[in-house]
Amino acid sequence: MHNLWRIRRYVRPYLAQMVWLVLAAFAATGASIAVPLVVARVVDGPIADRDPAGLFGLGALAAVFGLIEAGLIFIRRWTQAASAVGMETTIRNEVYAHLQRLQIGFHDQWQSGQLLSRVTADLSVIRRFLSFGLVFLIVNTATYLTVVALLIHLRWPLGLLVAASALPLFVMSRRFSRAYIAASRRMQDELGDVATLVEESAQGLRTIKAFGRRPYMASRFGREARQLHDTAIGKGRLLALSSARFDLVPNLTLAVVLVAGSVAVAQGHMTLGELVAFVSLQLMLIWPIESLGWIIANAQEAMTAADRIYEVLDTPPSIVDRPGAAAVAEARGHVRFEGVSFTYPGTTTPVLRRVDLDVRPGETLAIVGTTGSGKTSLVSLMPRLYDVTTGRITIDGHDIRDIRLSSLRRLVGMAFEEPTLFSMSVRENLTLGRQETTDDEINEALRVAQADFVDELPWRLETRIGEQGLSLSGGQRQRLALARAVIGQPRVLVLDDPLSALDVHTEALVEEALARVLRGTTALLVVHRPSTVALADRVALLADGEIAAVGTHSELMSSVPAYRAALSAEADDVVSR
């Protein structure tokens, strides 16, 4: 209940609407309760007295109550829908914004399908509870108590019998709750697993087809789907059994009331109209009791959904602005790594150890090393995708942790070896980090990246490139990512082998254009191709997470055998790819 109770802060902005819809529900219930009392007057009055004229007034009164109830139900449902969707939207926006704030390490450890199911399915469960389950819980409880009080007033022995029937309902509901909450959590977790599998299969469809593994993936999905199916069936069985039991109690009570009430009428202790009213009112209790199982199930699902939502919201971002962090509008771009060590969260083996580097303003430093030496980890520390474990990184003497994240990521531009493009237009992808970019700046960035293929797309810059940019070749995706990195004219440019998918001719053209761009920019280049080293003023050799040597390309080639071996290994790797 704790996490579900925490949802109340999203209800507060809609509290006035919630009060009105509850009042409308109470009024509608009152109108429906009044109808059996009118019927009792009809039976004991005009029908008993054989007075047809008296039927019209009471019939009209019953019709008025019916119209009032219908109108109030419409108002309640309409208000419910508007407020519930508003609450769901607010929670979804907050969860999405929090996911954006969370560090890369969090997303490395979580399945994307699990996060997707929390933002979609779990929020829908909470919305249903807030809009229907919670309201019906309040209204049905009030209806039950009101009707039982009227039944006791009409005929107290029978009324107490109806009230006593609540005891077995209470016992059954407790047993049902314990079993259903476990099944509900299991099903929601399995739903997230299936969503992850579908997403991975869609993104890796080319690989699946290329290796002829469609039957294997279909079998794997079938197992996951069957497990979800079995859990859902078990959950449905629990709900069906509880609904049947909840339905059995009021029907048995009704049978007893009909027999005992008939005897009371025959003995003159009740009028026929009172018996009709009593039975009609008791029939009104069937829906609140039958719906009890659904309400409990909905509440249990909402509890587990709230738990899953707050598993995300309660995870604090570890990479945040320090107190007193300042914005930096201008920078010369003097970058220093001072005793930097780094260990990935959740592991104990350091990836980087005691890294010391000094990159002067406007200098280009290439980072060379064999696969697994820590090159990508090193450059990922610059924009604070991860934070150093020990030591510090500075720009112009300022620890990057003392620079506001928004400011730091304007100063540092980055292009990855595996570029991520979004299902939006080319223009939107290029200007992702700098919305105010002009067409001239976009065209210049495209020229630097040799991305002239954009002119051949159907709608040029306005062409939507599809999810992950898979409608483009690997080289085209890399060139767009490179253009996106340089378009903001960052003071520090970090390029994690952004040319690996380019052919030799295109690579030469890009390197020539990059050489002009890099003249006034401090740059860190992760190098896999030996030809790319020519862009650098100096080279740092990274071996087993440590800086083994720093110097010019010619110096290292002549004096450091490990450097020659690393370049040779990278060249062989490029050829194999």
TrEMBL record:
<feature type="transmembrane region" description="Helical">
    <location>
        <begin position="275"/>
        <end position="297"/>
    </location>
</feature>
<keyword id="KW-0813">Transport</keyword>
<dbReference type="InterPro" id="IPR003593">
    <property type="entry name" value="AAA+_ATPase"/>
</dbReference>
<keyword id="KW-0472">Membrane</keyword>
<keyword id="KW-0812">Transmembrane</keyword>
<keyword id="KW-0997">Cell inner membrane</keyword>
<dbReference type="Pfam" id="PF00664">
    <property type="entry name" value="ABC_membrane"/>
</dbReference>
<dbReference type="InterPro" id="IPR027417">
    <property type="entry name" value="P-loop_NTPase"/>
</dbReference>
<dbReference type="GO" id="GO:0016887">
    <property type="term" value="F:ATP hydrolysis activity"/>
</dbReference>
<keyword id="KW-1133">Transmembrane helix</keyword>
<dbReference type="InterPro" id="IPR011527">
    <property type="entry name" value="ABC1_TM_dom"/>
</dbReference>
<feature type="transmembrane region" description="Helical">
    <location>
        <begin position="55"/>
        <end position="75"/>
    </location>
</feature>
<protein>
    <submittedName>
        <fullName>ABC transporter ATP-binding protein</fullName>
    </submittedName>
</protein>
<feature type="transmembrane region" description="Helical">
    <location>
        <begin position="20"/>
        <end position="43"/>
    </location>
</feature>
<dbReference type="InterPro" id="IPR017871">
    <property type="entry name" value="ABC_transporter-like_CS"/>
</dbReference>
<dbReference type="Pfam" id="PF00005">
    <property type="entry name" value="ABC_tran"/>
</dbReference>
<feature type="transmembrane region" description="Helical">
    <location>
        <begin position="129"/>
        <end position="152"/>
    </location>
</feature>
<keyword id="KW-0547">Nucleotide-binding</keyword>
<dbReference type="GO" id="GO:0005524">
    <property type="term" value="F:ATP binding"/>
</dbReference>
<keyword id="KW-0067">ATP-binding</keyword>
<dbReference type="InterPro" id="IPR036640">
    <property type="entry name" value="ABC1_TM_sf"/>
</dbReference>
<comment type="similarity">
    <text>Belongs to the ABC transporter superfamily. Siderophore-Fe(3+) uptake transporter (SIUT) (TC 3.A.1.21) family.</text>
</comment>
<dbReference type="InterPro" id="IPR003439">
    <property type="entry name" value="ABC_transporter-like_ATP-bd"/>
</dbReference>
<keyword id="KW-1003">Cell membrane</keyword>
<feature type="domain" description="ABC transmembrane type-1">
    <location>
        <begin position="19"/>
        <end position="301"/>
    </location>
</feature>
<dbReference type="GO" id="GO:0015421">
    <property type="term" value="F:ABC-type oligopeptide transporter activity"/>
</dbReference>
<feature type="domain" description="ABC transporter">
    <location>
        <begin position="335"/>
        <end position="569"/>
    </location>
</feature>
<dbReference type="GO" id="GO:0005886">
    <property type="term" value="C:plasma membrane"/>
</dbReference>
<feature type="transmembrane region" description="Helical">
    <location>
        <begin position="248"/>
        <end position="269"/>
    </location>
</feature>
<dbReference type="InterPro" id="IPR039421">
    <property type="entry name" value="Type_1_exporter"/>
</dbReference>
<feature type="transmembrane region" description="Helical">
    <location>
        <begin position="158"/>
        <end position="177"/>
    </location>
</feature>
